[in-house]
Amino acid sequence: MKKIFLLLIVALAFTSVDAQVNPELNKLILQSFQYHPHIQELNKSSEISEIRVDVAQSNYLPTVNGTASYNYVNPLSQTTIPISATESRTLLFQPHNNINVNIGVSQNIWDFGKTKAQIERAKADLLVSRQNTEAAKLQLASQVIGIYYSLVYLKSAMQVQDTLIAFYERNKQVIEGKVKQGDALTVDVMNIANTIDQEKIRKTDFARQYDRQLTLMMYSTGTSFEPASSEFDFKLASRDFDPQSSPDVIAANYRIESSLADSRLAQRNRMPSLVFAANAGDKNGYQPDLDKMRFNYLAGVTLNVPIFQGNRLRDNIMIAQKSVELSEITKSNLTNTVMKDWQSALVDLNAYEVQIKNAESQLTACHEALRLTQVRYFRGVATYLDLVFASANLQRAQLAQLQYRYQATITSAELLRLQGSKFWQE
Predict the structure, then answer these.
(1) Minimal CA–CA distance to 11: which of 380, 257, 352, 357?
(2) Widest CA span of the chain, in angstroms?
(3) I want to staple 390 with a disulfide (CB 3.0 to 4.6 A). Which of 8, 276, 287, 373 is the partner?
């Protein structure tokens, strides 16, 4: 039991908030906990586990039963007793109608630790159930964060497209004026019109993805919510990591404790048990008046000693021991997997941060290049293709920067999930 409580303290120690969540996103995360069927399912499973602890503890309490029985017996055992030299009497040993009404009490006096082992196993299973719920909440919170910032990214991407389309529309009007003046060709108008159509198609694709993310938001939170924020404001606060803080590793530790408790229970089942039993009530069948109901009682103790049960006890002990070994191997494998996932995600985050910085300088250069190209085009030095090329470079730089920020945000959320940090505000 000390190990179980120690694991619980370790789990609580790593539930501090390591990231600030904006109120809008925080509300969605908490709403998903109330709405999502999987979380409700796990909560109900935890409630069942709590009841099982009460059931195990109830073995310390006495059992009281009320019993009423009726039996009709025929023929009856009887004998003839001579009363005098000329007279005899038939004596019945029981009546035809046998009635018995009583209340019985049974109390386990000593079971050599079997009840205690059952309680320990039930409590260990409860910790596993609760930790599974916490791990599922972290997973669901990461999912909601991914959907939320996907919407932010796609909304910003559509705004980039709107800006680009508006830019091409303005230039289309300029080119149309140049065609009328004889300074440009009609094919230039056709080319820019085709470019506008292509950018509108790309915006439509972004809008399609946006609607799909709204559907996922409805599935996760029960509401089709469109974020008002346009910033990627979710940041990782700490890069320190202990694999023992991972919700999956904590759950594996609890499963080991559950297996150990099951092993202790299997070993205790070989021990005897001493039970006190008593009952009192009314029944008939007493001489000399067999049909008269009379008060009666009994009390005693029973010692049950397992001697041979077809090797079932021995096999159950072996199964429990193998389960402990399996749980320990599973934890070791899981710890390695968590460390691998953490290191991979951290490498990705570092790369995204470098790419964000590079994209910022690239974006500045693209803005300046487009400005100079516009000036040169209006003066007749640059061609329409130069203008399209410069605007396309700016668009790619803007979308790339959005993509890197989005990926960095999702990776930060994954790192916090691996840390086991409750980054929502409760």
Answers:
(1) 257
(2) 155
(3) 373
Alpha-carbon distance of 100 to 102, in angstroms, equals: 7
pLDDT tens digits in sequence order for the chain, 426 residues long? 444 433 433 343 333 444 567 888 889 999 999 999 999 999 999 999 999 999 999 988 999 999 999 999 888 888 887 777 778 777 788 888 999 999 999 998 888 888 888 999 899 999 999 999 999 999 999 999 999 999 999 999 999 899 888 888 887 887 787 777 776 677 777 888 888 899 899 999 999 999 999 999 999 998 888 888 888 888 776 788 888 888 989 999 999 998 999 898 888 888 898 999 999 999 998 888 888 899 999 999 999 888 887 788 888 889 989 999 999 999 999 999 999 999 999 999 999 999 999 988 888 999 899 889 888 877 778 877 787 788 888 888 989 999 999 999 999 999 988 988 887 864
Among candidate residues 151, 293, 283, the one with its CA nearest the CA of residue 229? 151
Q: Is 288 helix (H, G, I), strand (E, B) or coil?
A: coil
Joined tokens for residue 423: 């980054």
* Residue corresponding to tokens 């389309």: 165
Q: d(Cα 34, Cα 22) in Å, to the nearest integer?
A: 19
- Contact criterion met (CB below 8 Å) for 214 and 151: yes
pTM for the predicted model, two decimal places: 0.79
264 contacts 112 by C-beta, under 8 angstroms: no
| Cis peptide preceding 288, ω within 30 of 0 | yes
Quick one: CA torsion of 376, 378, 382, 387, rounded to 10 degrees?
A: 100
Region of 73 please: left (phi>0), alpha (psi -120 to 50) or beta.
Answer: beta
Q: Which two tokens stand for residue 406?
A: 């989005």
User: What whole-number distance in Å separates Cα of residue 33 and Cα of residue 40?
Assistant: 8
**DSSP structural state of residue 245:** G
